[in-house]
Design brief:
By secondary structure, the protein is α/β, with parallel strands linked by helices. It is built from eight helices and seven strands, in the order βαβαβαβαβαβαααβ. Helices cover 47% and strands 15% of the residues. The longest helix has 29 residues.
Length: 256
């Protein structure tokens, strides 16, 4: 799995999984475009990983805004001339509350990032890859996109939507030699899981973490680099006949 001279966009690049994807790719000589709403955080990733202006590009973007998404794609083309891989990864967990208590504002926020962000990314990256007749896209869904979880209606349903978008995009792109897949992480040791633990068990986050940990047949949380390894495989030529697939990374937590 070598990515020398490949151009790969990673959204949510400052997050736990996003940063490890960037690390994995640059270690294999890729040129990376780091996209995140938190510009200081992606600059910190750039510094931590010793990225240069030659092999990286930083773009601040709110992926729920179509013009922001078009901008990071345009900037990528302007600097590097092509897009070989796209990790459509930015996402938020949303509130933990009963479905009937969800507000329109909360709905718009979660769906704006988790669904519109994925859709807009596909909308602007796919035409580039179709013209090239090559490319690989990995959308980050979740095991929440395969099951239901009490108090997590927005996160669950938005990740189900990602699964649907992935299937449509894979079918529309296949004739152009462009592959589209999802990864579906389970409980992964990231800041997002810290937030989920605190949300589902206010004042008892450590107990929630222990419960999640105990529920996993492998008896541990996954690490972000374990997700990054699967994403890197899907981006690589070694997955050249893999498309419209969903890869669950959950320590056998859910048999779905």
């Amino acid at each position: 799995m070598k990515f020398e001279n490949k151009i790969i966009i990673v959204t949510g690049a400052a997050g736990g999984i996003g940063k490890e994807v960037v690390r994995k790719l640059v270690n294999e000589k890729a040129n990376v475009v780091l996209v995140d709403l938190n510009e200081d955080a992606i600059k910190a990733v750039q510094t931590e990983l010793s990225l240069t202006d030659e092999n990286s590009l930083i773009v601040k973007a709110d992926v729920s805004k179509e013009d922001n998404v078009k901008n990071y794609v345009d900037q990528t083309i302007s600097k590097f001339g092509r897009i070989d891989g796209f990790v459509n990864n930015a996402g938020v967990e949303g509130p933990a509350k009963p479905l009937e208590e969800i507000t329109e504002k909360e709905f718009d926020f979660v769906y704006g990032i988790n669904v519109k962000g994925v859709l807009f990314g596909l909308k602007y990256v796919l035409p580039v890859m179709k013209e090239q007749k090559s490319g690989s896209i990995v959308n980050t869904s979740s095991v929440a996109g395969l099951i239901g979880s009490p108090s997590m209606a927005l996160y669950n349903s938005s990740k189900h939507a990602v699964m649907g978008l992935n299937k449509v995009a894979a079918l529309e792109a296949a004739a152009y030699n462009v592959r589209v897949n999802t990864v579906n992480p389970g409980v992964i040791n990231t800041q997002m899981m810290r937030k989920i633990e605190a949300n589902v068990a206010p004042g008892a986050a450590e107990a929630a973490q222990a419960a999640y940990n105990d529920a996993v047949p492998m008896k541990r949380y996954g690490e972000p680099e374990e997700v990054a390894n699967v994403i890197a495989f899907l981006l690589s030529d070694e997955a050249s006949y893999v498309s419209s697939s969903s890869f669950t990374i959950d320590g056998a937590l859910y048999n779905v």
